[in-house]
Each structure stands twice: as structure tokens, then as C-alpha cells.
Amino acid sequence: MDYKYIEQLLERYWSCETTVEEETLLRDFYKQTNLPENLERYRSLFEFQNEQAELRLGEEFDEKVLSKIDETVVKAKHNKFVYRLYPFYRAAAIVAVVFTLGLAVQHSFSRGDNSVADTYNYASYKDTYTDPQVAYEQVASALKEVSDGLRSAGLQTEDSLNIQK
């Protein structure tokens, strides 16, 4: 075979100037077992192209694609106006926390040298209960009332927002 012609075809191949027939000729040429050393280095490229040309999609490919196309389309859920405002609620809560902390810091700096011990008279405080068990029961009942109130407020909030779990 004329190796000079193959070298010219390779130069045109690398310049993207070959036709489909010329590329087929190059692939067929590299199917040979005995090649010159200067052309041997391109064998793996053309062998790879020959292997890839033999690969085909299976029969089930079309069925899988068509089954995916025919699946029912899920419509987007319409978000209520309240849900759209959640980011603004969060931003307002952050601003409120920062504002409150700023006021607390400003208040603590504006008091001057007065300490907490000067403003509160701890000697005037007395124990209300002498029996610790009675005091414990009173605290437990007060905390239960607070817990019940918070729980009912949370349920009312969920009902008003129609949150689905």
C-alpha cells in the first residue's frame, strides 16, 4: 500500500478536511496487523473508532424513552400568599432580635457606674413557701399552664396557616 497517500490523508484528517470515504479508508487501513512505525502511533485512535462504530442502542432503549415521555405530568403546587411572605417574616424576626440586642447593650452602657447590687435590695426578698414540696408543686403547675398555652397557640397557628404535614 502507498504509505505516502496515508500520511497525506492523516494530515488532511488532522486539519478536518477529509471526506467520510477517506476516513473509512483510514479506519480500514489501521485494521491491518503490519504497519510502519511512524503510522503505528495512531492505531489506538482508529481502533477505538471502529469499536465505537459497532456499538448500537438496544431494542429496549426506544421503549424506555417513550415510557418516560408518556408519564403523567405533575403540576406545580400553587403556593399561597402567606408562604411567599415567609422570607420576609424571617427577615423581620432577625431585625427585631438585632434591634432588641442593640437596645439592651445601649441600656447597659448608659447606666453608668450603677451596679446591679445597688439597684436591687436582696434583703427585702423572703421565701414564700416553707415546705419545698409545696413550692415544687406550685412551680410544676405554673409551668404546665405555660406549656399548655404555648401548645394551644401553636395548634391555632398551624390551623390558620393550613400547614399539611
Structural notes for this entry:
The chain is mainly α. It has a domain at 3-69. 68% of the residues lie in helices and 0% in strands. The chain has 9 helices and no strands. It has helices at 3-14, 20-29, 37-40, 43-54, 59-69, 81-84, 86-110, 116-119, 132-161. Helix 1 (3-14) packs across helix 2 (20-29). 0% of the residues are buried. The mean pLDDT is 82.
Question: What series of H and E elements makes up the topology?
Answer: HHHHHHHHH
Instruction: Profile the largest sheet.
Output: none
Q: Strand tally, please? A: 0
What is the rounded Rg?
41 Å
What gross morphology would you assign?
elongated
User: Which ranges are low-confidence, i.e. pLDDT below 50, for 5 or more consecutive residues?
Assistant: none
User: Beta-strand percentage?
Assistant: under 5%
The tally of helices reads 9
Distance between the termini: 77 Å
Q: Give the averaged pLDDT, no decimals.
A: 82
**Which structural class fits the helix and strand makeup?**
mainly alpha
Q: Level of helix content?
A: 55-70%
Secondary structure layout plus pairing:
Elements: H1 3-14, H2 20-29, H3 37-40, H4 43-54, H5 59-69, H6 81-84, H7 86-110, H8 116-119, H9 132-161
Helix pairs in contact: 1-2
Question: How would you summarize this macromolecular structure in one to three sentences?
Answer:
With 165 residues, the chain is mainly α.
What keywords describe this structure?
single chain; 165 residues; elongated
